[in-house]
């Protein structure tokens, strides 16, 4: 795993900022509303225009394709966007199962005798499904089921429509969706803001387990001093557009 290094990051109303988060290290960021905490995370995730460079280990972000960068440096936004109909469709391991099934149907149809009816049938499968399973360390189904269980969900949540999700359910499931990409660094924007204390504690323990087992660098925006004390790690605060150690 790799550490995260911010080198002269300057976004609107923020910076320049330098910060190193070692592999496996957790750094909390707090600060008044509007001080630039989300801007900071969005700049690191390369979602907003900004100056400066971010390094993941020895690799500068400028040499990594944006889509790959965002998978390796995963942002959990305060309000996650859901685009597909069911929860499971947002998880790469589930999507790849669908894709693999389609690919095997495609292969079966191509190896079948070229009967016109089969040719007609094979048309929808002509375009090879997009491979999403070549990431070196995508979690298997049981890892995802474990994360879901730790966060208080039975596996059938994967079939739930996203329209029924409560705010807190969305927040917890967005974490599973993020971890399912096996990011090397996590950017968490108020990951427990909408949760009761018990659900918040579940999120904390899943993030901590992920950080420790994967050696992920974690940059966590949190307004909750109790959470920062409970988990430990370095605590920084944004003041006057700069990062300072929390007093
Ligand atoms: N797209 C934008 N255009 C103009 N100003 C913006 C934009 N996005 C954020 N800002 C401004 O930048 C400042 C920092 O915003 P940011 O969302 O980072 O605050 P924050 O510290 O995360 O606050 P909160 O704790 O309330 O979530 C705010 O004054 C905000 O209005």
From TrEMBL:
Keyword ATP-binding: yes
UniProt GO MF annotations: ATP binding; ATP hydrolysis activity
InterPro entries found in the cross-reference section: AAA+_ATPase (IPR003593), ABC_transporter-like_ATP-bd (IPR003439), P-loop_NTPase (IPR027417)
Domain of life, source organism: Bacteria
Sequence ranges assigned to domain ABC transporter in this UniProt record: 4-247
Swiss-Prot/TrEMBL keywords: ATP-binding, Nucleotide-binding
Designated name of the protein: ABC-type iron transport system FetAB, ATPase component
Organism expressing this protein natively: Thiocapsa roseopersicina
């Amino acid at each position: 795993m790799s550490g995260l290094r911010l080198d002269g990051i300057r976004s609107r109303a923020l910076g320049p900022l330098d910060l190193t988060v070692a592999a496996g290290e957790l750094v909390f960021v707090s600060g008044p509303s509007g001080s630039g905490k989300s801007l900071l995370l969005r700049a690191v995730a390369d979602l907003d225009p900004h100056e400066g460079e971010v390094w993941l280990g020895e690799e500068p972000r400028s040499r990594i394709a944006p889509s790959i960068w965002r998978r390796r440096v995963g942002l959990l936004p305060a309000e996650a966007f859901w685009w597909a109909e069911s929860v499971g469709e947002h998880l790469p391991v589930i999507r790849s199962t669908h894709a693999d099934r389609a690919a095997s149907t495609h292969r079966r149809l191509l190896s079948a005798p070229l009967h016109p009816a089969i040719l007609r049938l094979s048309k929808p499968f002509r375009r090879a499904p997009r491979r999403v399973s070549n990431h070196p360390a995508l979690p298997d189904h049981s890892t995802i089921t474990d994360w879901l269980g730790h966060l208080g969900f039975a596996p059938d949540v994967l079939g739930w429509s996203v329209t029924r999700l409560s705010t807190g359910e969305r927040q917890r499931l967005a974490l599973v969706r993020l971890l399912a990409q096996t990011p090397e660094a996590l950017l968490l924007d108020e990951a427990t803001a909408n949760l009761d204390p018990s659900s918040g504690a579940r999120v904390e323990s899943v993030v901590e387990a992920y950080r420790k087992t994967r050696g992920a660098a974690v940059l966590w925006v949190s307004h909750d001093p109790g959470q920062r004390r409970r988990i430990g790690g370095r605590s920084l605060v944004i003041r006057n557009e700069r990062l300072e150690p929390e007093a």
